[in-house]
């Protein structure tokens, strides 16, 4: 069993004439140990790098048998303040022992379990792009391996303190989200807001959390000079903006969203997709998504705009 370090205040009792001594171990232990796990292809490597940027001592694929020993060494160290480990399906059948190991580790160090996941489509696409094999895919397809892994990791997902779906994050957005969520001291808004424009004739986006219909606004499509342009063109945007109902709609929706964001953050949402739809997804929805997105960005939120059906 590790010996508890002496409190730092005890060192003040030493004589001023004593010889210089090595620094005593810090009082207590590291503020936390974050154990990162989850689906292969969900971004565990990128997340570990983000923790490293935050000053965590990071280890990838540490054998289960060494986790308790590592936690004890970190707790006694005078240099390691916070640690992050990746443990995943590469452990094989031994992974089933992780819950019991975590139970013991939590007795000596403040521990959080971070579980990363992503949709099947996102994972398949990532494996296709990187051309790397799935850890379980030596004798089966990537899709089958993903399905098997998801079932085998379900018990870890249930143990998680934080679950992040990385489907909608690119590498940079995921890094920013981790830094916002785990950095010490005041942090910025920990939610990514995606504004999506679309055309109703092509269907409503499946991943939209909020959908607003802007077909009540005058349609630039019927102005010949605007027909080949999009809502991002200054002339088209000015045309749509000139109507009183446009400005009122932008003001009211922006106020509503600024009001809602803190509640979504408190509820634990890491991303929100807000969709604006018009008939073809070329003019009105594009302009509104851009304008409302700018309002939310000014309010301090991480924002990105996507135009699903634009240009044609």
Give me the CATH architecture of the largest domain, please: 3-Layer(aba) Sandwich
The level of helicity is 25-40%
- The chain-level structural class is alpha/beta
Secondary-structure element pattern, one letter each: EHEHEHEHHHEHEEHHEHE
Name of the CATH class of the largest domain: Alpha Beta
Count of domains: 2
Mean pLDDT: 85
End-to-end Cα distance: 67 Å
Low-confidence stretches: 1-30
Number of helical stretches of at least 4 residues: 10
Query: How would you describe the shape?
Result: elongated
Cross-sheet strand order for the largest sheet: 2-3-1-4-5
Measured by DSSP, the beta-strand proportion falls in 15-25%
Structure summary, number of beta strands: 9
Report on the architecture of this protein.
There is one protein chain. By secondary structure, the chain is of the alpha/beta class. The protein folds into 2 domains: 27-182, P-loop containing nucleotide triphosphate hydrolases (Rossmann fold), CATH 3.40.50.300; 192-307, no CATH class. Helix content is 37%, strand content 17%. The chain contains 10 helices and 9 strands. The strands form 2 sheets. Strands 2-3-1-4-5 form a 5-stranded parallel β-sheet. The protein is elongated, with a radius of gyration of 25 Å. The model is unreliable at 1-30 (pLDDT under 50).
């Amino acid at each position: 069993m590790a010996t508890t370090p002496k409190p730092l205040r005890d060192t003040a009792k030493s004589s001023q004439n004593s010889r210089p001594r090595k620094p005593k171990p810090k009082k207590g232990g590291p503020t936390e140990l974050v154990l990162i796990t989850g689906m292969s292809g969900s971004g565990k490597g990128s997340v570990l790098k983000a923790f490293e940027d935050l000053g965590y001592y990071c280890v990838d694929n540490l054998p289960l048998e060494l986790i308790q020993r590592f936690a004890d060494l970190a707790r006694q160290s005078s240099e390691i303040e916070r640690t992050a480990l990746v443990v995943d399906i590469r452990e094989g059948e031994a992974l089933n022992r992780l819950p019991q190991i975590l139970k013991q580790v939590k007795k000596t160090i403040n521990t959080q379990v971070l579980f990363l996941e992503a949709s099947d489509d996102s994972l398949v696409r990532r494996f296709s792009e990187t051309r790397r094999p799935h850890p379980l895919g030596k004798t089966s397809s990537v899709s089958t391996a993903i399905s098997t892994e998801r079932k085998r990791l379900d018990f870890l997902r249930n143990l998680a303190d934080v679950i992040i779906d990385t489907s909608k994050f690119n590498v940079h957005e995921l890094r920013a989200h981790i830094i916002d969520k785990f950095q010490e001291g005041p942090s910025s808004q920990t939610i990514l807001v995606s504004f999506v424009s679309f055309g109703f004739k092509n269907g409503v986006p499946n991943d939209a959390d909020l959908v607003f219909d802007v077909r009540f606004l005058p349609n630039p499509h019927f102005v010949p000079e605007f027909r080949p342009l999009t809502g991002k063109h200054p002339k088209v945007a000015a045309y749509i903006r000139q109507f009183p109902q446009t400005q009122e709609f932008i003001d009211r929706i922006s106020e509503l969203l600024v009001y809602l964001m803190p509640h979504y953050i408190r509820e634990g949402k890491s991303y929100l997709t807000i969709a604006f739809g018009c008939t073809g997804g070329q003019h009105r929805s594009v302009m509104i998504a851009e304008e409302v997105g700018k309002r939310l960005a000014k309010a301090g939120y991480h924002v990105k705009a996507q135009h699903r059906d634009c240009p044609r």
